Amino acid sequence: MYEAKADIVANVWKIVAHEGDTVDRGDILAILETMKMEIPVFAEGPGTVRSIMAKEGTIVQEGDVIAIVEERV
Asked: Where would a tag sit more exposed on the chain, N or C end, judged by fewer CB atoms within 10 A?
């Protein structure tokens, strides 16, 4: 399992992936927004989204967990 984390303090603009979704490396899990810039949060590897920890419209801090993904071997 791995945790996809926010790299910066930002607003959670859009959650793209949902619990149970299958993702591959580079798929977008969520899009953060700060200073009118959109910052995608990418899947680190293939797997299944087990939990979305952030909600649209909330503020996340650097290092906050956005999603938990169970890796596929």
From this structure: C
